[in-house]
Structures are given as C-alpha cells and as structure tokens.
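Let's practice the habit of predicting before peeking. Look at the sequence and jot down your guess about where helices and strands might fall. Then scroll down.
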Amino acid sequence: MPTPPSAPPAHTPPSALPPFALLANPVRDYAWGSTTAIPALTGTPPTGAPQAELWMGAHPSAPSVLDDGHGPRPLDRLIAEAPAQLLGPETVRRFGPRLPFLLKVLAADRALSLQVHPTRTQAEAGWAAEEARDVPLDAPDRVYRDRGHKPELICALGDFEALCGFRPAAATAALFDRLAVPLIAPWAAALRRRPASEVLPALLRHVLEVARPGAGDLAAVTAALHRTAADGGPFAEACAGYARAAADHPGDPGLVAALLLNHVRLRAGQALALDAGVPHAYLRGVGVELMANSDNVLRCGLTAKHVDVDGLLAVTAFRTGEPAVLTARTPDDGGTPDGARTPGGGGIEERFPSPAAEFRLSRLRPTAVPVRVDLADAPQILLCTAGRARLRAPGGAGLDLPPGRSAYLRPGAGPVRLTGPGAELFRATVGG
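Done guessing? Here is the structure:
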C-alpha cells in the first residue's frame, strides 16, 4: 500500500497564541524619508537609502509579520484566518474582519505631498465611480484605493515641522502683501472682500489648473520667501518653511497652495489630529503616526503624482483657523478597563484626544512599579521609542521591547505586566 502524503504542519490555533508576540515590521523607502532616523531608532545600520516609514499593522500592501509558533506569518493573513480571536468580537462587529488602524514611525527629511483625505461617504462614492469606469487599482490616476476614510494623528518624537489647515484669511492676505509677488498679490484683496470659502477654491483651481505658474513666477515667489524669512518679521519662520518646501519640489505649483496653510512646529510629545477635508503636509521631523487603515489621498501639490483638481476641491473643507496642538492627558480615574494602570491605581497612561472611532493613541512611561496592561476586547500594538520595556504574561512568559521594536497584544487574553523605568512606549488600539 502506498504511503499517504504527509499533512502540512498545522499552525498554532490563534486562541493558543500567547497574549503578546513580537512584530517584524516593514520599512517603506519613499524618497522624502530620512536615511538615518529610523535606523537610529531601531539600532540597525543605515543602508544609505531613504527610510521614510516603519509600518506596524496588517495593511495588505506591507503587513507586519508575527510568529505564531510555526514560523513567521503576515499579520493580515493570521487575522483573516481567525478575526474574532486576533481582533476581538466587538472589533469585528464594528469594523469587519480587519485591523482598523495602522501605526507608523514617520521620518521626513523632505516635504511630503500636500494632501487631503475624504470622508467615508466621499470615499465610498469615489470608489464606486472609479470601479464603474474600470480604473485599475494600480493606475497612476486612480484616487480611491479603498472605500475607507483616513483620519490620522501624529505625535512628534522631537522637533517636527508641518503645514496644517487654512490660515485665517486676514493673515494670508497680510502674508501675500508682504511677499508682494504679482502672481498672488491680487488674491490678497479678494481674501479681504469675499468669504474665504469662495476665494480659496477659486485660488486653488487658478494655480493648479488655469494659470499653471511657470518657472519665473515660482522663482519670484521663492525669492520673496527667502527675503521675508530673513527680515525677522511675524512671517519669518513660516516663510523659511515654505522656502524649504520649494527647494524640495522645485517648479511645483503646489507651492502657492502651501502658502495658504498654517505653518506648525511641534515639540516632542505634542501632536496634531487631522480629520477629513483638512489640507496638510509634513515637512521635517520624526513622529509616531496612527491612522485609519486606508490609502485614500487627494494631492494638491508638492508631488510628481496625479493631482485631481475637481476631486480635490470636492473633498476639501475650506474652513480657516489655527490648528489645535494636542498634548496627552492622564485619565482622572487612573486607567480604564482597556488601559494601563499601576497596582495602586495611579495611571501612567497619557492619552491623545481623537474623534476617530478606528483608533486611539496613548503614551506610556513606566516607573519602577509594574504596570498592568488590561487586554480587553480590542487589539493593541505597543511600540517602544526609548529605553527598554518588558512585558510579562500571567503564566510567566516574557518579552523584551528595546527601542524601535513593537508587540501585538491579543484581545481577551488577560492582563500583562509592563516594566521599564525610563522607557517610553506608544499604545495603539481601537477608539471608544
């Protein structure tokens, strides 16, 4: 009788996995990335190539890898096989069988593209329209890669520079007067006479589609930015930032769009929350970024990629004002059932406010007293950004987290202990 073929080795049932496991995370090599910041964080040698983003999660284009006891496997595949065990029944009920958030370390040495994200309703309509036109998912002019929205929050790990939201109209008019460049000077009067919600869309369309300023016009704007940055006035710091963006993207008409936005500097521990419709761009720095698990981006400049002007204007919220800079706060009750707390009740978890249902970001700074991290009905990712932390399960299994390493915490497996005097960790989980 022939010998039957041997069965492939069975994988460990997800319910038998330990409450936490180390993640191996992909690095994205976008051209704007730093060559040194992520290697410095992770303790790996620089390759000489840009390392822009360290991804932690289950995004299908670059999932983290988790060892389930029979070798490393992509996290998205493990979740697809057993979503209730790896996400928790409540997370599956709310968001379906996929991890609803993506955690990143972002390291920018050059300005990212100026961009806006759609609402969920806009994303669903945009996806349906492009599907009806049979636009391939990998087409360069494809805008909607999925049906989701993409709120995001970024917390600076050091000095961080960004553009965020439309500046108040009177201040933008004053900036245009100070620059005194023919390309934009007439718009100062328009911003003073008419509502910004009327002027800003017309200005963007004019710059991105109608006028398409030439090299001479943009050179004049750049020269004016350098001059204004050097004069020490109220716009000096912002103009220096715009001038660096111009150098990063020479000849890009999106420079004029950038001038409409607030220039923001964050210190370590400060954060920005970016909702749908808010134009923004990150210019320089390293930060921990948490977002809904979507790829939908509409660009409005500082990029060689496709710019859909009509689509951009349809999803942009033309509200003006100064962005709110966020700081993390400790819950008054010393922790919540899905949070972190010391045995004595003194919570060490500092949470960043965010309206997004898909995610919540917290910062943990353990002391010598062990911290209990409760594993409620939601997945969590813990990322160590400084010092060295250690997780210990009730049964005694332990896991070290040096800087740049992260762990996936399975929901419902019971509390684990976290120690690490002097360490800093960020905790990503589902929003309330």
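How did you do? The two ends are 60 Å apart (CA to CA).
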